[in-house]
Structures are given as C-alpha cells and as structure tokens.
Known about the structure:
Radius of gyration: 26 Å
Shape: globular
Number of domains: 2
Number of helices: 9
Number of strands: 19
CATH topology of the largest domain: Fructose-1,6-Bisphosphatase, Chain A, domain 1
Keywords: Hydrolase, Magnesium, Membrane, Metal-binding, Transmembrane, Transmembrane helix
Low-confidence stretches: 13-19, 31-42
GO biological process, one term: phosphatidylinositol phosphate biosynthetic process
Helix content: 25-40%
Distance between the termini: 103 Å
Strand order of the largest sheet: 4-6-7-8-9-10
Mean pLDDT: 88
Protein name: inositol-phosphate phosphatase
InterPro entries: CysQ/Inositol_MonoPase (IPR050725), Inositol_monophosphatase-like (IPR000760), Inositol_monophosphatase_CS (IPR020550)
Order of helices and strands: HEHEEHEHEEHEEEEEEHEHEEEHEEEH
Organism: Larimichthys crocea (Large yellow croaker)
CATH architecture of the largest domain: 2-Layer Sandwich
Strand content: 15-25%
CATH class of the largest domain: Alpha Beta
Amino acid sequence: MAPMGIRLSPLGVAVxxxxxxxxxxxxxxxxxxxxxxxxxxxxxxDLRDLLAVSVEAAVLGGREVKLVREQNGLKEKSxxxxxxxxxxxxxxxxxxxxxxxxNLIKNTFPEVxxxxxxxxxxxxxxxWSRDIPADILEKIEGGKDVPPEALTVWIDPxxxxxxxxxxxxxxxxxxxxxxxxxxxxxxxxxQPFTGFTAWAFVGQGSNxxxxxxxxxxxxxxxxxxxxxxxxxxxxxxxxxNSSSVIAAGGAGYKVLSLLxxxxxxxxxxxxxxxxxxxxxxxxxxxxAGAALLNALGGYMTTLKGEVIDYSGTPLNKGxxxxxxxxxxxxxxxxxxxxxxxxx
Length: 343
C-alpha cells in the first residue's frame, strides 16, 4: 500500500501560514517591546538646551507683553480674586505671552510637564531657534542629561499684571523655572521693558551675582504692594521700627532687587536686603527667583525656614523669606510666629 500523504486545502494552507506568523510574532514581540522600552529610557533632556529654550521663551513672551502694552491692547478683564479679596486682572499681554512661552517649551520638549499661570487652548507652532546664547555656552557645559519625567517647568507669562495695567512697567517680568525632582535648578527672569534677562543654573553658573554687602541691622525689606501695611508691622515686630520697607510689584522684580544689576539697569531696580511675603503665593511666581538665589548661594524658604517643593500643586501656603549674603537661618529665627493660612 502506498503511504498516505497529507493534502491541505487552500483554506488549510492559509490557516497554517497564519499560525506560523502568530508564532513568529509572539517570539519577537517581546524583543521588539523591550527594545522600544530601552529607547524610551535613553531619551533624555539636556539641561543646557532647556536653559537656552527657557531664555528664548521668556524673551519671546516679553516681546508680546511689551507690544500689547505699547499698542494699548490690554483688553483687561478679571479672572477672579485672590484669597485676600483682591481682583486678579487678565490681559491680552498675559495670554499672548503664555501662547509663545508655553508652546515653545512644549514643542521642543513635549514630554516635559509645563505649568503656566495662564491657560489657553490656542496652539502656536513656534519652534526653538537652536541658538544657545554665548554667555550660556561660555559658562555651562552640555551633556547634563536627565529624564523628562523628573522635570517640572513653571512659567509666569506676565508677573505683576496689576502693575502692568497701571503702566508701572518696571515691575513687570516674564519668568521660566525648571525644577528637577522638585528642586529649582534653572531660573530665568526677563524684563520686557528694559530687555535685560537674568538666568542661572544651580551648580553650573549664572550671569548674575550678589551685591558686595547686605544688612540685617536693620534690613531693608521688599514686600508686596498689595500687603504693604500688614507686612510692615510684621517686619517691625522682628527688626524694630527703624526697618525700611519697600513696597513693590512682582515677585521676579523683588528677587532682582536682592542682586547686583548691570550698571545700565541698576537705576530701574530698588535695592533691598530681604524679600518677605506673608500670604499664599503660587510657585510660578517664585520658582525662577529661588533658582537664581540658590545658584548664587542665597535662599528662599517658607517663613518657618522650610524648603519649598516645586512639584505637585501650584500653591505655596507657607509664605516666604528670601535672602542672600546674610545668615538666613538667623533671619528666619527673628521672624514672629505667623500662619499664612490664618490671614
């Protein structure tokens, strides 16, 4: 008897082929998946590039802020009230600056979390010029690569909006801050109406420096225009009636008042020894200043001297005290007991 052969119908051939493909897929799917996972893990952000993009974003936002103000196109409205009851204005300067700043950073580093004071659904295709400013190239080494999920970027498209609406433009800044694992490592504060940009990369370098001397006996304190009277009594409880208090707008401006400004811009900035804020404040207002101070050997803490975490929710509830060139711990110990949540 002749041996029996196995004959497959066309349908059987198709099933056999599909089974073969399935076996091959299962054999290699795990390998391919692992390789894609490894590729994702290798994708990092160079912090020098992110610093350059942050500077470019602050400058682009600043141009929008300046243009809207000069064209008197503010279209001011209220976006609500602060916890203390003060109206929070919103202008076209805030929105147009936000669109440039937010989209430039997200278009360049799409995997990085970016938190902005403003919210807007308009997409801008703005892209990074790939330019790294000469002073950054000179002072900062490349290759400081970190995973994007470790980063949080805070942007303030227009700090001191109230003063902006009053044409008190010297207080106005645009700011970008990069926090790594909740710690501020890159800070950029740009002044749209003078064109000056302060930047710092903690542990790497800055285009700023401390002043040659500071005093806390008594200090000159810089505080918010919105709470000047209340803060003044708080400060005088700590340092006596001879303490000098400067009321100013904008958290970015207040940090710059603690630092040595270029001679061409020095006349436009008040000089203070300590910056104090006794109510709630948002992290996009203070993160860039914290990075600048930290890079130069200064401090920004809560009123109780606690480190501020720049990840998670935007609200800092502990108030703040910022200083450089003085004993920060001794400064904090002089402050009266104060709970911002009760005021």
